[in-house]
Structures are given as structure tokens and as C-alpha cells.
Amino acid sequence: QLFRIILATLHSDNNNFFNDLCRFIPSIAGLKKESNDLCNDSIISQIRMSWLEDSKKLGSKLQKKLFTIKQLERSGFNYAVGPYSPQNKERLICFRNETAYDNIPVSDDGYRILCLFRFWNMMYYFHPYMKRKEDHWLSILPQYIRLFANARKLNDFDKACAMLACELKDTHTTFYGFKTNLYGFGEGIYDDGVLPIDVKLIGDELFITKFLTAEAVNMGLQIGDCITHVNGRSISTIRQEKDRYLQFANDNANQIPIVYTAFHGDSVTLNIKRHGIERVLFIRNWKQYARTFLDDRTAPMKLMEVGEGVFYINLSQITSLELKQKLDSIKDSKGIIFDMQGYPFDQNSAEVLADYLYPKPTCLFYYTYADLKHPGVFRKNPNMFYYGKQNPDYYKGKVVVLVGGGTMSKAEQLACIIGASPKGYVIGKGMMTGGVWGNTVVAPFTSGNATRYTNIGAYYLDGYCTYPNGVIINQAVPFSAKEEKGENLRKLIEYSLNYINVR
Q1: Are both 311 and 459 inside the same structural domain?
Q2: In 344-359, which positions are buried (b, 16+ CB within 10 angstroms) versus exposed (e)?
Q3: Where are the transmembrane segments (predicted)?
Q4: Residue 47's domain spans which residues?
């Protein structure tokens, strides 16, 4: 149907375009209108569909027909989107009748337009946070129509798909089936050269935090230097280009800010600020400084006592069985510091923690689900999720959970469970976590490509939306660019001990 419409309207002038589109709208005579007009307090978010309101763009005849279709009564069955099953308590959806057309080459103009048409609409009506980005999603469509129309080469097509998915700024985004190595050197994000350093992004400034090789200390850079330009181009300008291929919901979740320093060739000129003084540094033959990579020996232990009666547990390195055994052995301690700055080693740790920390089953947050009768509407899921059990012997000491930009998805759920416990407290390296709390599904492009996205919305009980900032943080800890990984952890533990011992 889409292809027929395109061919029929391809050579239409503005006066006939709307009439040509109207010819393809099926008859709606005799169909019922929606009776309650969505008067339901379970609606948490709803797109405005503001594009329907402009009669000058649509023409009055076409606008009237589309409004009538929008108001029609629908059953719960949706051909494009899979139904919920009784076992599917989170009410995840799937695009059951959309295939990836693995064998159709990207040189086929029609299927590239189908790819854009289909994915843009899937996200417009079924992304749980589209309400927050609807204006942006509408505004980018013309540019992507041109981009997909011209993407006849495989590399260009892969990049177009990646750019479109990354417009969502959904940290869960992952690509499948792409032939182009978008995250490798020489493609997409990176240029040929990347200096052997770690950097921290603060606004549009990059601060050097670590040298990755033994030779890197001889480049002329220092820990704490602020990089403002690469080969004469400002970091803000470079970000505008590179962010097209980055999916992170917020700056703190950005795991690869080094991409903003990438350059082409064997040499690079950096503008830096050091102690308030601006300098220009030319680094010739950068590869000579990238030979002997250093081992990262700063990874913290699974378990350790960090103060009198206070224990540190790294949830990124411990199994749920080890966790249960350790917690049972320290149930009379003064306090516990849980490190959830990475991803949990064992997802069953959530149940172990809740059973240990809560005196009774507790509901902490709710999810939203897509209303198949009204595309673009997300409702509160009536299936509430409880954590913990009846446990008069629950842990009575204070607990702290450490979070940061690397706290994403399941890690955010664990952090909330700990932080919302009777004596829980959340300390953050920065004010935001990943902002992608909730399960995912895969949405197909064409030519075998697909991507993952967040399928349900997650909210605290008071209505606070976890996108894009993630877990609510009680106290953010400031860090300087010169503080390395081990020093960062020591500082976070110091703040935690202050909460446990003083407050």
C-alpha cells in the first residue's frame, strides 16, 4: 500500500497531492467511533499527534478523513503489534508481522523508504517515552526521508539506520545485522586516530583523567588538562556530528566520550586549558605513544570491610549465592555499602537484596504499557510488582548504594531496591544514571538490520519518570578530573561512611 501511494503521488503538484492521498484511504462508512474518548485515569503518557492539527499542510479534506479514522473504535487486536499473553505481566509488545527482509539489497529504493516509514511509526506510536520527544521526532522526518532516499550503498544505509535509532537517545539501543562496523576505527563514530587516554565529558569540555599506556605520559598532556579543540574544531561542533551515532540518554551515561577526540591521520593538534592557561599542543605520530597498554588493576574487591562494622560489597562481581552467604554473616553490622556502578553479575541478586532489606513485601515503582486500541497511549500496568517478604529479622543497619553513569537497566532496578529500603541512601557519581529502566524488545529495519529499544516505561510511585535521568539520587559526589578510578571509589566510600556514622 505504501509503494502504491508513493508511485501515485510521485509527480503530484501541491494542489493535487492531498486529493491523491485521499483516494487511498478506505471507506469508513458504518464504523463506530470511540465512545469514551480516552477518559481514563490510567493513562500515563500520550502523544499529541499535533501534525493532524495543521489543515494548511494536510488540506481540509484529508485532515477530516484522518481525524475520523483516529476516533474510530478499535478492538484489542492489532495486526502489526503482538498481543499480550497471560504470562507476560509486564505487557511487552512485539512486531510480529514485520520482517527484516534479509535478502533484499539496500540498493532497492522502495524498501529503504519502507524501512524508514515502518521504524519511524513503530517508535512514534510504541516507544514509552515518545511524549517527551514528539516534537523532535516529527521535526527530523524530512531530513531522514532525504537521507534514506540517497542511502543506496550498504555503508550509508547502515549509518542511516543507526542515526535514526540514536535519535531516540535510548541507552538500551543495540544494533543487530549491520555489515558496517559503526563502533570500529574508520567507520561512523571514530576516525583513524584516538589517543591512548581516558577523558571525562563535562558540558562541552573534555578533561583527561587517565593515561592508558606507558608511553602516553610523554605526549605533553597532563591529567586534568581540558581539551577544547581537536584540529581547530571545537568539542561542541564535534559533538553535534558524533552524537548522531550515540544512543545515551544523558551525558553521565555516555560511556565513550573519547570519540569526541578522534581524528584522521598520524598527527593531531589539540587546544587545551591547563591551570586556566590556554595552550596549543601538536602531537606527531601518535601511534608511538600507543604501544604498551597498562593493565587496569584498580578493580575493587567483591567484599571488604571499610570501617568499623561497615562492609563494602561490589554487586558487579558477586553471585547471588555469595551475596546471600555474605549478608547472612554481617546481619548485625552497622552498615553496608553496595556498589552498583556497573551491571549486576547476577540478576537474581534483586530478590536476595529485597528479602534481606525489607520487613514486608513492598511496591516501589510501576510500569506502563502500550494501549493497542489507541496507538501512542501508554497506560499504567495494573500488575504491580512487589519486592521482599514478611521478615521481622530484616537488616536494621544503614545501607548505601553507589551509582553512576554506568548504572543502567537492571542495575538501576537494584539501586532503587536498595535506596528505597527503610534505611537506604543513594550516593551518585554525578546526578544521573543510565535512564533506561525497563525491559526491551527488538524492532526490525530492512535488509537484515534490527535494533533494540526500551519497550515499557518505568516510574516511581509518586509519578517521577526514570527517563532520561534514571534513579533518584540523594547525594551527588563532586569529582575533579585528576581523581582516578581508585580515588573515585575511596571518595564515594568516605561519603558513605559519613552517612552511616554521622547522620
Answers
A1: yes
A2: bbbeebbebbbbbbbb
A3: none
A4: 1-73
Helix (H, G, I), strand (E, B) or coil at 475: strand
Indicate which CATH number applies to the domain containing 372: 3.90.226.10
Within this chain, do residues 334 and 468 fall inside the same structural domain, yes or no?
yes
| Residue (of 199, 94, 109) closest to 147 by Cα position | 109
Do 309 and 285 fall into the same domain? no
Which one has a higher pLDDT value, 444 or 41?
444
More confident residue, 307 or 421: 421
**Residues recorded for the chain:** 503
What is the DSSP-derived secondary structure letter of residue 192?
S
Domain end marker among 267, 289, 311: 289
Q: 91 vs 40, 88, 295, 378, CA distance in Å?
A: 18, 5, 44, 11
pTM for the whole structure: 0.90
The tally of domains found in the chain comes to: 3
In this predicted structure, what is the pLDDT of residue 186? 39
Separation CA 116–CA 121 (nearest Å): 8
**Terminal Cα-to-Cα distance of the chain (whole angstroms):** 66
Question: Is residue 486 within 8 Å of 330, Cβ to Cβ?
Answer: no
Residues 332 and 246 in one domain: no
Residue with cell 578493580: 299
Three-class SS state of 424: strand
Shared domain check, 50 and 26: yes
For the stretch 185-241, pLDDT in tens is: 334 566 778 999 999 988 888 999 999 999 999 999 999 999 999 999 999 999 988
Cα torsion 348, 325, 433, 377: sign: positive
* pLDDT for 37: 52
CA distances from 461 to 44, 367, 400, 402, 464 (A): 12, 10, 21, 22, 7
Residue 137, in any domain of the structure: no
pLDDT in tens, 425-442: 999 998 899 999 888 999
How much of the chain is in helix, strand and coil states, percent to nearest 5? 30, 20, 50
Are 417 and 403 spatial neighbours (Cβ–Cβ below 8 Å)? no
Residues 283 and 327 in one domain: no
Q: Is residue 162 part of a domain?
A: no
pLDDT digits (tens, 9 = 90+) for 229-280: 999 999 999 998 888 889 999 999 998 899 999 998 999 999 999 999 999 9
